Structures
1.
Amino acid sequence: MRPPLAKPPPAASPRRRRLPQPLSPVAGLLLLVLASMASLWTAAAAAAAAAAAAAAAATADTPAPGLIYYQRGYAPLKADGYGSVEQIHLQGLAVSPRAEAQGYISFSRQDGLDLDVHPDTRLGAFLPPNTSGMYIPHPQPVNVEFFFPQALLPRYDALTLVAAGQLQLYPAAVRPATPPPVGFTLPGVVGLLAGLHLDASRTALLVRTDAGTLAHVLLDGSQASVTMLEDPAPQQVHIAHGLGPVFHVVQDGKYSRVGAASGLQESIPGSVGQGSLRQVLATRAVTSDPTRQDLILLQANGTVHICPNQIAGDRCTSPSLSISLPAGVAAGGRLLNPPVLGLAQPLGYILYHDTASNRVWRFDLGPGATAVTHTRRVVLYFDPGYIEPTNLRMLAFRGPDGTPAWHLVDDHRVHFTPEAFQCQSDRSIVCATEGTPLARGWSCIAGHAVTPLSESGLFCGGCTTSMTTALHPLEEAHCERCALSGCRVCTPEHCLVCAPRESLLVDLVTGVPACVAQCPAGWRHSGAFCRPEDPGPQLRLDWQPVEVTHPATVTPGAITGIGATRMVPDAAGALVMAMPEAGQAEPAPGPRARPLIFHQQNAVLWMAEQPDGSLAGQPVTGVPVAGQVTGMLELELPDRHNGWPVLGLFLCVDGKTAQVTVARCEAAIAPAPGARCPPTYETLLAENYSECHFQRLAPAAVSILSPGIVRVASFDSSARLRLQYWNRQATHPASLDPAAAEPYLIMAGQQRTFIQPAAMDYGDPRQAALPDASSGEPLLKALPVSMPGPGPGRAELVVTRFATDPTEALWVAVHFPRGMALHGKTAGLDGNEQVLARLPAAWVPSNGRPRVLALDLHMADFPSALVLVLKDAVAVAPMHCPAAGGGLCWLQEAITLPVPGEAGLFAPPGEAALVPVAGPPGPGKVFSLLLHQPRGQVLRLDARLPTCPEGTHATPAGCRACDRTCAACQAPGPSQCTACPPGDRLQDGQCVPRCPAGQYYQADGSGSDYTCHACHASCHRCTGPGAHQCTVCRADWLRTEEDLCVSQCPAGGFGCPATGRCAPCSAHCTECALAAVHPGGCTSACGACAKGWLLADATKTCESACPPGEFLPAAAGATACKPCDPACRTCHQSADFCTACPGEAALHPAAGQCQHQCTPGRQMPVDMLHEGTPGREPACVACPENCAQCPTAGATCVRRADGAIDCPDIRTCGRCAAEALLLQGQQCVFECPEEGFFADRDGQHGPVPSCVACHAECAASCSGPGRDQCIMPRTGAGRAVGLGIGLTLLCLLLVGGAVAVFLNRGRLFGAGPAKVRFLRRPRPACLPAWLRL
């Protein structure tokens, strides 16, 4: 606004020439008119100044309007988006009734929202997609419109008006009850306006009649009574509930109350605003007394009156506070506060919805509602592309403390207040403010990602890609960038997941991973890894048919299932619990558990392994089932009863009944070594399914799978069973950390794979809102598996699936190293995808899902393996981990073995069909598994280490080099030698020289004695004195191509520890060092290039130009490329100045930054072309300041060959940001120029709010486009009047002077009489119209 104009100084009196005669009468008249006008203008100025002062005084205590930003829920309010959301039970929680095709109304309720599992509700998902037990059966088609009266108790009965006067009440019930509807005939009733269930049998209604009046209806059981109300019922009538209970009714501006139970109507004379009201609301804004209410009355002119702390019969005649709406807010809106019958505590504010602009205003109230402390417009963020709804309302949802919390909602999302969204207490998020608008009203702080239901309790407690929390506890909300370039997941020392364009190259000697842009010679690209072209000998798999010896009492027949138990048979053949003999290890899962075979004749055989690998069967009794067992899984529970172990038995009976039984020793038998105790069985669960399959989740938890349904049965420390249920899950879940006190599960649903707290049930609506577990494509038809890692308690998360075409199926695995431990995320995890095996498409199961077991190998560097079991084959993929446990674990490619014969395997999707056994002894034994075929044949799968050449040792992943001191070995390290080089002798697994280091021995002629002589100085061991006779070089020395030992390789070479030799650098490289080790050789990392070549940072090779993802610094003489920031795909002259973005991100060329999308209200999308190459990418160009939409049609940015980018400079605007106005199509302003324009804020005179030019005949400003809307400039009342007076005085003086001169021209100039000609002179334009006469 301009500063006030300074008062002009008084004009000096002009020197006048004394005239011989007085002025004529005309001149005197003009002077009189002039004086009168001056008086009138002065009076007008005084009046205007007084009015302005009065207005200033009236608004002096009203807070200036501001903004308050609400936070949009992360997920939709209702997962399936189907059905409206209603506040039926006023003192309860909102529900969603939905019409089902089967002919009933079901209710989606908040009962499953278990805040004991996790208290965070900021996901915004409160209603599950499934339905609860409450429903309403009805015979009508599903498109019948139901009316749900609100209720003072949990009653969900519905009404329909099927024809004029024909009312039906449908009682809500719990399935399978089907109560019939109750019919009522109410002649003349044509519409239902409001309703309230008073108790279990009575319902009060306000209805419209065909006579155009209101009527009260009381339904009591099967009876109905009707009371006609006095006033006519206009089309627009507002009804609200209040204490009493009563209906507060406003019609045609008149306010009355109708008793909900009695139907008596009471007019309210003397009420404030009576006759001009729009709405009366009984709520709890400031009053906390449960027997009182706050009455809020909204007048048609927009004034809001508040009468607080009223009892049920009070009238609002003297409001404690009256609020006027801010300027520009339409008066035809409505109040949004909840009814008093549903509020236990006051809100402390009033919400007003301006329905014309779809904006909400909030008035914060002081104590007693005597003042407004803040007047703020509520900034709401709706979903992109989602039409801003007019159905804004407040509904009650379960709050973090379990009590109802009222939130503002639209048809799609919950909008949280900053307090409810924890904007101040959650340090992992930042919420929108007037200076920082955000897309959802909130965002994660830099470096953090949305982490729903995390253990830390922070909504953004996890780290984004390329950030890690490995050095800090998760609850500190601290993330730092990976130290190694190109990493997506890292530890402080190693990179575990590389950027998309790079591959992991793992040093096979040290296990250290590195990210490389291309695989070196001798290696091939496979998924996320570089793998050796020739992996050498692999793990050996063999099938062995197992001879099962049946006792004479059992007729051999088809096998229905197999299992394993720690129990043993006593002399009578009954299974008993047994303690280990003295000095014997206690039985543990795995081979120490003995196989059980179940037959069709319900016979159970306890199998004893024979030295030749056959099985001798002994009939046993005591298995607590009545039927055929098709699967069995046994757990040793953490509880110990009387010192004895407690066993949990999971049995699938007759292929469909899942039975959970606990076996305990109740006898008073001391658990001494070798003691036996007959168990007591207690069956805790027996449920029928279409199928039942078991998978171990944790030491005391098992998942039970039937098609589309998963139940998890877990035991606490007292062997009490806890059951959880998930519907629509396609396969077994997996535990991310089986040993954790509060583990997380990864679930594989029909459409996505997600991570949730293990204790969360399917009914919790937040489950359906959880985002996908993977940052890549959704993992469909997948099976999650938790693999034992190195060290106790550590697990590695793998998700496997099939990718098929008509002829081939790829067994694909996505491995998420360390699960959530390195970044804390529960969604969007980055992993290493790889192809484990290529299989015939015909081998894939009909449901398209793999059947995989994680097998514990109990090996330090190969702790576990994935076993894929198909009807036609078995595949095994070992997982290799560094023995030290600090590096990267990675899966090896699988070894596949077809099943012999045509019968195939019995391969259900679970663990129970695989029984680990000891198998026959032999070198290189890794594991043995028992499986069976449908026709009764038992097969054993033996896995053995490969046979390796001398100088290497066998591992499940192939042959690896021995320690340099060994000639042959059985494992890595200097203490695992099995043979030694010449001159050494083997002692306790180590090769010990016969002569001291640096000497060689020379036998005498008899062969019985020898003498030691000095080696060459370069040798550690040798066969003679020459430099070329070294067998082992000195420590850290290397052998050259000439077979000499040197301390440092010559120029152009580097040392390779895998071979102990010097190898040449790569092409055009003058200096290099070791980069990675692979079987039979090493790769180098160049440190300096020949002249004219540039050193690439990622590959450490010499290139003619920097590769994508790197840049050449602008400094003179730079010859080494530097990596771009991970946020950039390419960059120019600076690591963080992006010139291309990864994925679908858009580039902001002016700032050199990548962003997920163009900032709404600030930028517009354009295409960016590449000079000299095809293709285009998204980019964002800045609009003029405060411009929300600027024209960019046909505009493009061009990236030149040198990396620089040229973009157009947008100088025009099509639409301004909120509150701003478009000026002449180029500039966005908040106030129009004071002259020549008026503010069209509602867009009535153009397509967008803008500054519109005044009419051409307007001298200054105007109030509209017409010539009759010209006004003086808007410079304040006093200054406008003063300017008008000055202009009028000037015009009158000019006219008066001209007349006086004309009439006295003879006297003035001494001329004689002359002829006078009267001319029509033009009137000055500055005169008012009444003076232009």
2.
Amino acid sequence: QFAWQKTLGNFLAVTGGDRTVSIFDRHGQKINEITLPGNCITLDWDKDGDTLAIITDKSSAIYLWDANANKTSQLDSGMRDAMSFLLWSRVGTLLAVGTTKGNLLIYNRQTSRKIPVLGKHTKRITCGCWSTENLLALGGEDKMITISNQEGDTIRQTSVNSEPSDMQFSVMKTDERVSTRESTVSVVVGKKTLFLFNLNDPDNPIDLKFQQSYGSIVTYRWYGDGYIMIGFSRGCFVVISTHIREIGQEIFQAHNHKDNLTSIAISQSLNKAASCGDNCIKIHDLSDLREMYAIINLDDENKGMLILAWTDDGQLLAVSTRRASLHVFLTKLPILGDACSTRIAYLTSLLEVTIANHVEGELPVTVSVEVEPSFVAIGVYHLAVGMNNRAWFYALGENNVKKLKDVEYLGTVANMHLNSDYAAALFEGKVQLHMIESEGLDAQEERETRLFPADDDKCRILCHALTGDFLIYGTDTGVIHYFYIEDWQYVNEYRHPVGVRKIFPDPNGTRLAFIDEKSDGFVYCPVSDRLYEIPNFSPTIKGILWENWPMDKGVFVAYDDDKAYTYVFHKDAIQGSKVILAGGTDVPFSHKPLLLYNGELTCQTQSGKTNNIYLSTHSFLGNLKDFGPNELAEMLTQTLMLKRFSEAWEICRLLNDPSGWNELAKACLHHMEVDFAIRVYRTFGNAGMVMSLEQIKGIEDHNLLAGHLAMFTGDFNLAQDLYLASSRPTAALEMRKDLQHWDSALQLAKRLAPDQIPFISKEYAMQLEFTGDYINALVHYEKGITRDNKEHDEACLAGIAQMSIRTGDIRRGVNQAIKHPSRLLKRDCGTILESMKQFSEAAQLYEKGQYYDKAASVYIRCKNWAKVGELLSYVSSPKIHLQYAKAKEADGSYKEAVMAYENAKQWDSVIRLYLDHLNNPEKAVNIVRETQSLDGAKMVARFFLKLGDYGSAIQFLVMSKCNNEAFTLAQQHNKMEIYADIISSENTSNEDYQSIALYFEGEKKHFQAGKFFLLCGQYARALKHFIKSPNTEDNLSIEMAIETVGQAKDEALTNQLIDYLMGESDGMPKDAKYLFRLYMALKQYREAARTAIIIAREEQCSGNYRNAHDVLFSMYSELKTQKIKIPSEMATNLMILHSYILVKAHVKRGDHMKGARMLIRVANNISKFPSHIVPILTSTVIECHRAGLKNSAFNFAAMLMRPEYRNKIDPKYKKKIEAMVRRPDTTEAEEPTTACPHCAFQLPECELLCPGCKNSLPYCIATVSAGCNAERKQLVCQDCPERPSPAELGAAPVWQSITGGCESSPLVFGQVLVKGTALLP
């Protein structure tokens, strides 16, 4: 067994089976060995670690070893029986000793008093524990637990069902803890259960049992807020809570060891728990037991382990094994370290210091030291370690470290700092500055060492620092001294109201952060002797580190145990220098920061290693492309606070957001980085800011430049202060004028530019007028008069006039306004007076300003009709005319009233006056017709009704939408035809149409009845009346019947009408054209086409060729539109009729060849023209003869000589035709050919059926020939003067002679041609 010295942990007492107790120091050196008469039963240290008590099985004496004197003494217990138990009090100097027969001895080491208590137990005392109230709990083989006071008196006792062991006092966990007194005794009973005995509730002890699979209870430990960790023999440990609601529940369970577990230990200072078993030790973090902190394997210890124990400070962990060996592990080092620039020195073992420079990439160097140091200091070329009043110095070579010397000081050194040549040690309120290596240097003797402060200075130095040039120290009186080493004299002094506790200079010594006795933090600049408070400075701050990265001057972190706070000292800001808090970063448990370099905090840990932490304020130093917009926006804020503008630029470039660029630009202005701000503003296109900054960037006056930048950022008060402190204070006045801060501008002008006061006064007065402060506005308008600036003075006089009226001085204001040349002023003053109900003066000013409408309006309010009449010719407002008209009407002046009503556009009143008072109905009727006034129409209707003119009355009733009255009137006076004519032209309801239809039906007027039934949609009744209607010359009733059926789309009605047209009902067939129109109305185009052919044939037989042509063409067009195939008979007949119609036009133009070709086509189909066979053949012979087509002329002349035609020939041509037949001339030029657009077969131009492909060819409507298809794809002949065809350029005049121009051409159809000449297929 073994036991660590309590509190200090400097000694370890170890015993085995060799009747000795060995005492080792913490470095493993044996200090003493105590020989015993028998085997050691147990040993224990007192609460301070000063005395070790030992009992043996062969002696009744108690052995006491004094750790301070290294001496052993014996204490006679006075007991005759052998001792079995020993334990020191946790709070006092009491030692409890138990015997094998159950007796007890309480020994007070301080007073040497012994209190024997016989019969405390009936059998061996095996276990016990002291409470913090000096209560002693004991357990023995008699299965009893006793609670005694320090006098040995039993105050509680209880029995258990098996032998107790491992007894401990503690506090059970409760919801509301009244006191923290240790009132609970815990004890292991029979190695199976954990027994909890509450002294405050002795009747209700708690017996906790565990799973048999865990094995027996080996040991347990209380920790935290009422938690117990229990170790079991089969390798498990379990955590339970002693809260009454949670008791019996396992909070955590882990099977740490495969075969067995022999001991557990808890270090509250480390917040760690350790268990040992098999051949390893496993360490857990108590804050998260699931996390395995460390595993220590002891491969040589194959027999297993025994006991595990920590020192109180958690620095050392010892474990004993079954092989009679003891292992001690260093679990926590004193955190000692120092930094100089980027080099750090830190303790890596109790007797080892490591020097490293990760920034420069140097390899770590370890230095073995002679003592366990209490301080470490690192310089440019040296390392110093020490304890108490001694320090050892080492020279740092490139590859090795050489010990230089050791120095003794006049007191215990609290702290030390080094630079390249000197060391400064702080001890007992003084600092000794001395050279590290004086040998070999031509140093003056007085410069080798110096003690601060001087003897006459009664202050105590609390802190110090050493830079390359200065020794800086702070005192309890609040004075910070700068001692310049090169000149060996003081160069600066700052007095603070309270003592300065810690100081931290930046690497150059030009800025100093310090913490005073109130735990407030400040930054001091010795160059300017200015002090800046550090905001949000936590009172728990332990130290400050300045940034060592050369580009990040002004950044420092203040740290405590849990957090590092990043601060930035903004030196060149437009608001002046200040310190801001940039953010905080969590520091892991037991980490001490040593070095800050580019946002990376190097910390020393308890394990003797370093760990790098990246400050949360420097998260932008990673790969920016890995972050999203939200993270980048946060990083932008960080970079701007840290003045890292280059990184901010990259973030803005990735964000590509105008707001980000704007934020960067504003930050540049804030820190007076003008060139960078120009670059940023230029990037996102703010030309105005670029130009403004370009104008000021060369300004050398700091205050003037800062004033401009403050103005740009909108801090105008700051800008004014900076301007006034600059070399050009008038800039403040210019700024206030530009901002229209006239009150401030006026105050500045009085001091800086008195000649500007009148102009500023005017502007200030205008602002006051706008805010309603008329009295002060009047004062400033009066101050604004210069008497040498006409335009300015007129504006001031106008303001005086208005403000005089506003303040009640109406006479002055009106006179001023009348004298003033401005019309607008008169209007504005008039408006003010009108609002003040000063109508007479307001009207006067309106009239003077030629605002006649307003003047007349105000005169009306005054009832000054005479003045209104005078102004009426200038007035344009209908409202005023209306008011005047009403007044004149009331006076009986109707003519003047009518004129005024007309000017006011009040037509109803005009009509009323014309009818009622001026007896001029014609004028009233004209006005009604022009204005379509409903009320006017009613008045006129009533007027005509009085006169008995019912037709006119009906007309105006309909106009006034009084249809029911009009209908009744028409019915009463037999004027329904008039009413019907009027209403059929109006947008009228079906009910009105039905009323009229029913009336006509009753009157047997079938046509009118049918017409109005059609309008109201009653098609069957409409058709019935149209059929009954007697026929007229124009057969209008049939046309209406067709329209009715066409709208109805009802098969029964259609059949009824067809029967009527075919004569089925009355035996009188109607003209076929009506049947054609019916089919067209019904969109039955095929039936319409057949009918059209029949009609055209009848018309053709009757000689009405134009009618026949029109019928066919209209049908042709409709079929084309409906995309229905054209019957070949229709197409052929249309082509022949069209050819016939074109003959006259070609002949009239003298184009006999085209005329002849058309006539040849007609003559070849002469049977289709039975009424004019001879005249057509005669014309054909004549035109063929004229065109030189002699053979064709002969053939048709021979046809005319037939008996049935010969006598019908016009005598005028008869002899010539007979001569042609008698003397035939058969010469004839061949007809020109053209290519078929479908197959390219060459065929005559006038041939419209291709012999090659049997396709019908499209033809020109001007020439009825296929010759215009010079280009195969040219299916439309644009035969028009505007757009001539590539084929028949001469056809345009022909077409114009037929149609009068292509705009009105009846042959323009379908979607083939919009304007011009179409080709008919």
